[in-house]
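Repro:
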Amino acid sequence: MMIKNVSIIGAGTMGNGIAHVFAQHHFNVTLVDIDGEQLQKGLSIISKNLDRQIAKALISQEQKTKILENIKTKTNLSDGVETAHLVVEAASENETLKLKIFQQLDAAAPQDCILASNTSSISITKLAAATQRPEQVIGMHFMNPVPVMQLVEIINGYATSSYVTGSIVELSKQIGKTPAIASDYPGFVANRILMPMINEAIYSLQEGVADVTSIDTIMKLGMGHPMGPLQLADFIGLDVCLSILQVLQKGFGSPKYAPCTLLANMVAAGQLGVKSGEGFYVYTPGSKDLVVSSKFRK
């Protein structure tokens, strides 16, 4: 089956980024979200990101127009996937929600359609079990920001067919990404390694080993990381970090994945990072200055 029609479920940060990339590579994209306002916001973000590409001479104004023409929007899931060859689910990192969406996708999408999830930690095998086509379910874990980051972590579920895996590997290359295959274990590879590091950085802050600036500076300059772990946690979303750590802890049954109390408290207080305007740092629209949150200033 040639994949030409791609439906993206969820118009948030990851969803609109995935839609952007597929549309830029000449696929017919349907962006689906039950919230019409979120759909318009997603399209606006895609347009602004395309403007950045124009400013860098990566695309022309004419190409931007064609890319946007490749994207249509739907608020009804069934309508949004009725002609899809591939669906990429990019809803919130919530297992109950994703299981419900996969049940709906299985009922609404064409029989030969591949169902993929952009989940960063939830079991592909479990999502596949919610369908009658487990061999056609796979993980496509894109990295944020999607138009910029090269990696797609491809996760095989227990029943994923080799044909589907091969198709998604080739498709990832078609959209300019580098595929890397992982098996379906908690956190896969990316977050199984990344999240304990972020968690340990938060423990180091909680225990007074170093302050926010020192922790991030040490990891940037000493380890060659482009962004410190605390800033990265803010960028990912502290609620997402907490959720992934909880999946790891439950999946492996090991206390080494237990989320730091400070992280749990920040999430409970609504201090989620970039998305809420404050996490370990304060984020002011239009400002590029990195300002440590007043809660962590000495």
